[in-house]
Amino acid sequence: MSIGVYLEVTLVNGQNYSIPVEEGHSLEQELELFLKREGRYATDWVPLMKAGRELFVRYEQIVLVSPLG
């Protein structure tokens, strides 16, 4: 079983969440989309995952993003 590739984000409250890289994207492409707010990141809300649950936070709540793979 392979471990997925994802971006890890840390929120202002110190909690860490992940953003799975979309199929067909490299880690670098996903990070670029995130930083430029393009594609699925074009809104004010960022889709996050934690413990199999999807949730959304505003960009202003994110203080750190790290590519992990």
What is this structure, in a nutshell?
This protein is mainly β.
Task: Provide an overview of this structure.
The longest helix is centred in the middle third of the chain and has 10 residues, at about 25-35. The protein is mainly beta. It has one helix at about 25-35, and strands spanning about 5-10, 15-20, 45-50, 55-60, 60-69. It contains one helix and five strands, in the order ββαβββ.
Could you give the distance between the termini?
14 Å
Average residue-wise pLDDT? 90
Written as H for each helix and E for each strand, in order along the chain, the element string is: EEHEEE
Strand order in the largest sheet? 2-1-5
**How much of the residues is beta strand, in percent?**
35-45%
Question: What's the helix count?
Answer: 1
Helix content: 10-25%
Q: Which residue ranges are poorly predicted, with pLDDT under 50 across at least 5 consecutive positions? A: none
Q: What is the total tally of β strands? A: 5
How does the helix and strand content classify structurally?
mainly beta
Keywords:
69 residues; mainly beta; two-stranded antiparallel ribbon
What secondary-structure arrangement, pairings included, does this model have?
Elements: E1 6-11, E2 16-20, H1 27-36, E3 45-50, E4 53-58, E5 62-68
Antiparallel strand pairs: 1-2, 1-5, 3-4
